[in-house]
């Protein structure tokens, strides 16, 4: 492409062969994206596909190991986000970065204040903000406190903040994740106006219906690399995109005997969780009518009437794009977050029990983030063995922690679960991720649990450890354990589960049989491309 | 256990370097103040000319260390789970005056009398610490703010009590107000007989070496056992190292906050007792202040571990004792505060550095022993 002939049509952003490695993983590999100016360009992909890393590279928060970035035809190398801002790139983060106790105006100018004699020049700032707001149709009251604003307004403030700094290329990271449908429509209206003004928008999402609604061009990322770049008119359906996102080859589950029994181990009924904090159901109203009212009020629900049963010897897999209620479901079952609805373990209603009592009665928990919820990194392995078993044998001896028994039992886990460690006194942080995870799996399988929550049990784990963990789960299932498996790894879900339920926006939208599952159907349900109708 | 030994050695090495650096920096400060560092340091080791003076100096030193040690323990219990009980100051003052008053209202055989006084002090301290704990648990009030505010209330409340409801008979010509005198049975026997063993003269000033030293040592051992060996201690440790993991493991954070705060406050309640039971026999308006705040520094210096806190308390007491000696040597005694401040700062930095170093070494050692490196993923 010669610069002189195509002076007006230079791509706004051009990424060539971007590769980014982190210790042990490749986050991005040979990414190629061309974004035309004055368009809305969507980048879609599952969580963990590498979208966030890519955006951090484009916004100067991380440096690529290989590849080039061109902005408006000029090659750039960003060291910090201010370099990116300098060439007109602005980022609207998924989680708003606003100071609640300042006004809209103060938030917008924060860090780029117009000054007059050392004082904030409010008049100039107000004039510019009003101009920007009017020309782009972004209605906000500059004198309101941000804490009094709704989510949609806050997002507009974020966009204005970026425009105020002179951005011509806007990156929006999952902007609709926090919005209700009406607000999404409003946002899209704003984006269309920005586009009409000649601005370029890069829109990151995994909600395909929204992408199809707003985007002019779509790039699909899977497993860290770009798998397709399409113009909007080349895309015929959300299913087509879903298939590209998930990949067209799904593993076939191994043929194996079903160990599912007819004894229900865990029953969850009408579990519902509000987004803005738990409030007890008012006296005299039933849970159903209360939830009905929440829905009528347009409240965002993190969990919306979730019901299922898991039998002894059954693995129930939950498929879904992250952030659709999986974490909330787990924490509700563990008693970490309060929710409405019933949870029963065997015959017993446990919905009012504490986390401790739930654990004691036989719930094991492999958390999704082992460093956050699973381990005491700066404590020894045997102390980590005690964690979650403080009140049970062998760790407990009256008011004491039985160190000898705990150490002996840790030795057992180290041996049986092949945890590679110099000894049980080693600190947990000295182990590799796979070995840490094997220790957690071993711990949670201790004490004969009746029901196990396994959230991403093999995330960030090497292949050998993964196979071992899968074997342990299969064996436990054969021995009658009920397992709730939550995973973003479809191989894992299809390979292990007896039944798969798909969760989308806090609802279970489909129950699928892993032995006859097609990628477009799974992907369609996961991304909301197929509307939720129960099937069996 | 070589891993643990390594970590301990590193810690000690870090502390030694920090103290040497602190001495160097303090020397500069002393020189700037127009005095000679050599004279100043000589003064720290100058325990007096006569034998009696030396015994008295040793007694002053130990008597200062005891309340500092208890204060350090009280603060450390909270620190262990990232709970900043800045209210130790108020807790101990209120506890001291209540215990002194209650102790003066009856007379019983010594063991009972003293036990009742100790229990009252611990209860008052614990209950006063319960207020910020409840505020934190029910309303999310930051305990740093609430305990600081409660300090002011406690300090003024105790000045009011010592003047009003709890005031005792003021002797003719006496300027300080005081609570009623404790009966003789409340006075803790001193440890002056230890001096006889070494052929030294027993100290005469300030009631000799306070017997409460033994209670403090016992308390230190009990706290160590509770923190290191019991389930409660494990929960404290887990909550401090990783709150979300503790929560997921079934530890109730609210109960833990209440329990840890009350334990911290209960210990804080005992801080004033060595002085009351060993020397003064009452709480008066001249009562030693500031021990609660010093306890924070002592706990930091001692890395929240009973043994470390004991060493830190001895170090602080050693420096504090030199007040008089420094004045005699023509060195401004505020040098002590400078040395203490610099030491705490440097030791905290050294702790952080050695801690990271130890963790990194541990990682490397584990990798070496396994003979494997982390799996490289081909690009």
Description of the structure:
Chain A is an alpha/beta fold and 536 residues long. Chain A folds into two domains: 230 residues, P-loop containing nucleotide triphosphate hydrolases (Rossmann fold); 215 residues, Rossmann fold, CATH 3.40.50.300. Chain A starts with 12 loop residues before the first strand and ends in a 10-residue tail after the last helix. Chain B is mainly alpha-helical and 379 residues long. In chain B, helix 1 packs antiparallel against helix 16 and helix 4 runs parallel beside helix 6. Chain B is globular and about 75 Å long. Chain B: Pfam families: BPD_transp_2 (PF02653). Chain B: It is a multi-pass membrane protein. Chain B: GO terms for molecular function: transmembrane transporter activity. Chain B: Keywords: Cell membrane, Membrane, Transmembrane, Transmembrane helix.
Helices and strands of chain B, in N-to-C order? HHHHHHHHHHHHHHHH
Query: How large is the radius of gyration of chain B?
Result: 23 Å
The helix count of chain B comes to 16
* Poorly predicted spans of chain A: 1-7
Largest interface, C-beta within 8 A: A-B, 49 and 37 residues
Amino-to-carboxy terminus distance of chain B? 40 Å
CATH fourth-tier homologous superfamily of the largest domain in chain A:
P-loop containing nucleotide triphosphate hydrolases
DSSP helix fraction of chain B: over 70%
Strand order of the largest sheet of chain A: 6-9-10-3-11-12
CATH class of the largest domain in chain A: Alpha Beta
Instruction: Give me the CATH fold name of the largest domain in chain A.
Output: Rossmann fold
Number of strands of chain A: 24
> Distance between the terminal alpha carbons of chain A, to the nearest Å?
54 Å
Q: What's the total number of strands of chain B?
A: 0
* Major sheet size, sense and barrel closure of chain A: 6 strands, mixed
Spatial shape of chain B: globular
Q: Note the beta-strand portion of chain A.
A: 15-25%
> Runs of chain B with pLDDT <50, length 5+?
372-379
Helix and strand composition category of chain B: mainly alpha
Task: Please estimate the helix content of chain A.
Answer: 25-40%
């Amino acid at each position: 492409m010669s610069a002189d002939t195509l002076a007006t049509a230079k791509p706004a952003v051009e990424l060539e062969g971007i590769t980014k490695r982190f210790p042990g993983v490749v986050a991005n590999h040979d990414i190629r994206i061309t974004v035309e100016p004055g368009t809305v360009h969507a980048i879609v992909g599952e969580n963990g596909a590498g979208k966030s890393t890519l955006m951090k590279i484009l916004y100067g928060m991380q440096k690529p190991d290989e590849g080039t970035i061109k902005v408006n035809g000029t090659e750039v190398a960003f060291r910090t986000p201010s370099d990116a801002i300098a060439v007109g790139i602005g980022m609207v983060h998924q989680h708003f970065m606003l100071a609640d106790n300042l006004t809209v105006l103060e938030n917008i100018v924060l860090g780029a204040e117009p000054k007059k004699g050392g004082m904030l020049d409010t008049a100039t700032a107000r004039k510019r903000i009003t101009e920007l707001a009017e020309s782009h149709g972004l209605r906000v009251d500059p004198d309101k406190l941000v804490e009094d604003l709704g989510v949609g307004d806050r997002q507009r403030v974020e966009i204005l903040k970026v425009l105020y700094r002179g951005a011509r290329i806007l990156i929006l990271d999952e902007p609709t994740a926090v919005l209700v449908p009406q607000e999404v429509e409003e946002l899209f209206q704003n984006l269309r106006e920005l586009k009409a003004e000649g601005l370029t928008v890069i829109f990151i999402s995994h909600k395909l219906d929204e992408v199809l609604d707003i985007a002019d061009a779509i790039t699909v990322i899977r497993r860290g690399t770009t798998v397709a770049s399409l113009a909007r008119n080349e895309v015929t359906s959300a299913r087509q995109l879903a298939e590209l996102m998930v990949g067209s080859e799904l593993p076939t589950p191994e043929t194996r005997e079903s160990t599912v029994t007819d004894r229900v181990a865990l029953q969850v009924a009408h579990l519902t969780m509000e987004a803005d904090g738990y409030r007890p159901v008012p006296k005299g109203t039933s849970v159903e009518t209360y939830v009905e009212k929440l829905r009528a009020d347009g409240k965002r629900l993190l969990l919306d009437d979730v019901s299922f049963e898991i039998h002894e010897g059954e693995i129930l897999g939950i498929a879904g794009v992250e952030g659709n209620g999986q974490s909330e479901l787990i924490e509700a079952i563990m008693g970490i977050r309060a929710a409405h609805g019933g949870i029963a373990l065997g015959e017993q209603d446990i919905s009012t029990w504490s986390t401790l009592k739930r654990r004691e009665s036989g719930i094991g928990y492999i958390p999704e983030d082992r460093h956050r919820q699973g381990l005491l990194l700066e404590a020894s392995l045997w102390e980590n063995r005690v964690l979650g078993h403080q009140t049970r044998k062998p760790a407990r001896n009256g008011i004491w922690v039985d160190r000898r028994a705990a150490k002996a039992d840790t030795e057992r886990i180290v041996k049986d679960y092949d945890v590679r460690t110099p000894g049980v006194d080693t600190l947990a942080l000295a182990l590799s991720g796979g070995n840490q995870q094997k220790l957690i799996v071993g711990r949670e399988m201790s004490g004969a649990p009746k029901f196990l929550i396994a959230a991403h049990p093999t995330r960030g784990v090497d292949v050998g450890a993964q196979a071992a963990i899968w074997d342990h789960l299969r064996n436990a299932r054969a021995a009658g354990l009920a397992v709730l498996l939550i995973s973003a790894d479809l191989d894992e879900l299809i390979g292990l589960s007896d039944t798969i339920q798909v969760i989308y926006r806090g609802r279970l939208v489909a129950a699928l049989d892993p032995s006859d599952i097609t990628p477009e159907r799974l992907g369609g349900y996961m991304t909301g491309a197929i509307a939720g109708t129960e099937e069996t | 256990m070589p891993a643990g030994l390594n970590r301990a050695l590193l810690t000690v090495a870090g502390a030694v370097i920090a103290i040497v650096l602190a001495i160097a920096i303090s020397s500069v400060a002393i020189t700037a103040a127009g005095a000679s560092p050599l004279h100043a340091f000589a003064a720290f080791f100058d325990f007096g000319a006569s034998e009696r003076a030396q015994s008295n100096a040793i007694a002053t030193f130990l008597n200062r260390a005891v309340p500092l040690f208890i204060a350090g323990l009280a603060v450390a219990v909270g620190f262990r789970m990232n709970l900043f009980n800045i209210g130790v100051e108020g807790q101990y003052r209120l506890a001291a005056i209540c215990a002194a008053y209650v102790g003066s209202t009856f007379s019983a055989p010594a063991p009972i009398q003293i036990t009742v006084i100790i229990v009252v002090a611990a209860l008052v301290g614990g209950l006063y610490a319960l207020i910020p704990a409840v505020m934190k648990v029910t309303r999310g009030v930051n305990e740093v703010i609430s305990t600081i505010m409660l300090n002011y209330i406690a300090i003024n409340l105790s000045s009011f009590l010592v003047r009003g409801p709890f005031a005792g008979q003021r002797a003719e010509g006496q300027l300080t107000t005081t609570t009623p005198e404790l009966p003789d049975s409340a006075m803790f026997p001193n440890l002056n007989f230890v001096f006889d063993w070494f052929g030294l003269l027993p100290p005469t000033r300030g009631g000799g070496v306070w017997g409460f030293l033994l209670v403090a040592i016992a308390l230190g051992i009990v706290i160590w056992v509770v923190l290191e060996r019991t389930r409660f201690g494990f929960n404290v440790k887990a909550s401090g190292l990783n709150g979300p993991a503790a929560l997921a493991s079934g530890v109730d954070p609210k109960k833990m906050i209440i329990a840890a705060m009350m334990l911290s406050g209960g210990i804080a309640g005992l801080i004033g007792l060595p002085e009351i039971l060993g020397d003064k026999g009452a709480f008066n308006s001249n009562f030693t202040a500031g021990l609660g705040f010093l306890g924070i520094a002592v706990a930091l210096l001692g890395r929240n571990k009973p043994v470390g806190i004991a060493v830190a308390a001895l170090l602080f007491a050693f420096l504090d004792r030199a007040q008089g000696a420094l004045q005699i040597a023509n060195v401004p005694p505020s040098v002590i505060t400078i040395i203490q401040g610099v030491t705490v700062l440097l030791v905290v930095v050294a702790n952080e550095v050695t801690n990271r170093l130890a963790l990194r070494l541990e990682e490397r050692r584990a990798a070496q022993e396994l003979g494997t490196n982390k799996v490289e993923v081909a690009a």
